[in-house]
């Protein structure tokens, strides 16, 4: 699920979320009286947890992207010496549910890291606040299994290996495979940037 915060939790060092973690775990524990309890999902702890995880996801993804691009900005090195970054890096195959009974599979750990961050980018509705978003990010984790089970029979899986072979701009044209990948990325909230000459 696009907004599920749990897969991104490992991108935050434990020390940065330790205080809020027990509260959040009660939200996910079926034996807790706070299981899926909306006021807990909108609490200050949940909001702080969401903010901290997303902030750390930004730091990790930016740091990795900067190091791959050969960034020579001294400020980047200074910040990483002051900010504790999570040592976690994705491994194995990640399967993302788009919410439309489609699955997106990805093995490249660097691409997974970027997808974990960029698919969480929100388009805020005017009436939506950070507490609502934090609650939605927790609730989406609870429906992930049902969404996965609903998506498996369809066998509509988009495998995003060989990303370097994808065109930077599809401009709505291309073979069926490119269009399928384009649709899957759009379902994950990764709107394609079109280049026009």
From TrEMBL:
This is Uncharacterized protein. It comes from Nelumbo nucifera. One of its GO terms (biological process) is defense response. It comes from the Eukaryota. InterPro entries: EDS1-like.
């Amino acid at each position: 699920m696009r907004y599920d915060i749990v897969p991104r939790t490992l991108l935050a060092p434990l020390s940065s979320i330790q205080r809020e973690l027990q509260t959040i775990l009660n939200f996910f524990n079926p034996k807790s009286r706070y299981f899926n309890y909306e006021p807990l999902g909108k609490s200050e702890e949940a909001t702080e947890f969401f903010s901290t995880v997303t902030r750390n996801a930004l730091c990790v993804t930016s740091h990795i992207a900067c190091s791959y691009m050969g960034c020579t900005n001294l400020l980047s090195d200074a910040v990483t010496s002051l900010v504790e970054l999570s040592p976690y890096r994705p491994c194995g195959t990640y399967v993302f549910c788009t919410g439309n009974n489609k699955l997106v599979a990805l093995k490249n750990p660097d691409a997974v890291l970027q997808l974990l961050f960029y698919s969480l980018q929100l388009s805020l509705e005017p009436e939506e606040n950070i507490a609502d978003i934090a609650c939605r990010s927790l609730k989406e984790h609870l429906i992930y299994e049902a969404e996965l089970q609903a998506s498996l029979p369809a066998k509509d899986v988009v495998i995003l290996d060989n990303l370097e072979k994808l065109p930077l701009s599809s401009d709505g044209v291309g073979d069926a495979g490119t269009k399928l990948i384009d649709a899957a990325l759009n379902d994950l909230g990764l709107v394609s940037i079109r280049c026009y000459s």
